[in-house]
Structure formats: C-alpha cells, structure tokens
Amino acid sequence: MIKHEIKAVLDRVPTWPEERQRQLAELALEIEAEMSGLAFEALGDELQAIDEGRAAEAATPEEVDAAYAAFRRQ
Predict the structure, then answer these.
(1) Residue 13 DSSP class
(2) Helix (H/G/I), strand (E/B), else coil: 55
(3) Among residues 43, 48, 51, which one has the least CA distance to residue 22?
(4) What secondary structure letter does DSSP report for 37?
(5) Across 1-74, where does the E strand assignment appear?
(6) For every residue of the chain, which 3-state class applies, written as one string?
(7) For the chain, what is the domain count?
(8) Structural domain range at position 9
C-alpha cells in the first residue's frame, strides 16, 4: 500500500470494534519491534496461554479439522 491508502485505512480504524483495534495495535507494535531489532515480549495473558498450550495434549486430527473449519466460517 502507498501512504495515502495506509492513512485512509488508519482513519477508519476508530470505527472498528474495540477488539479488532487492539489486534491491529498489537500487530503494528510487533512489526515496529521487529524493524528496530527488539525482541518480542509476551504479555502475562500470552504467557499463560503459551503455558496452557504446552501443558495440554496435542489436538487430534479431527479437532484440527474442526478448528480450521471454524476459522473459515469467520
């Protein structure tokens, strides 16, 4: 995208649902950190989710298929 397209999208961001605004902010901060050479630092809730994921059993192929199907519906 060129600058005016980016600005146009960013001008519309305040009309988005709060959760989507938060996701965009997190993504932008991650990109900025990568460009500056800073390491990613997970937040408390992210660390908890990582710990829970590592402690859980692996998903079955059926569970994986169901998850992908749910993502496609969104």
Answers:
(1) G
(2) helix
(3) 43
(4) T
(5) none
(6) CCHHHHHHHHHHHHHCCHHHHHHHHHHHHHHHHHHHCCCCCCCHHHHHHHHHHHHCCCCCHHHHHHHHHHHHHC
(7) 1
(8) 3-73
Tokens of 11: 């001008």
Tokens representing 71 are 């993502």
The pLDDT tens digits for 5-35 are 999 999 999 999 999 999 999 899 888 888 8
Nearest to 27 by CA among 11, 44, 10: 10
pTM: 0.49
Which letter does DSSP use for residue 16 in this model? S
Tell me the per-residue pLDDT of 28-72, one tens digit each, with 9 for 90 and over.
988 888 888 776 677 788 888 888 888 888 888 898 888 888 888
For the record, the structure tokens of 41 come out as 């630092």
Q: How far, in Å, are 26, 40, 45, 64 from residue 52 at the CA level?
A: 21, 19, 10, 17
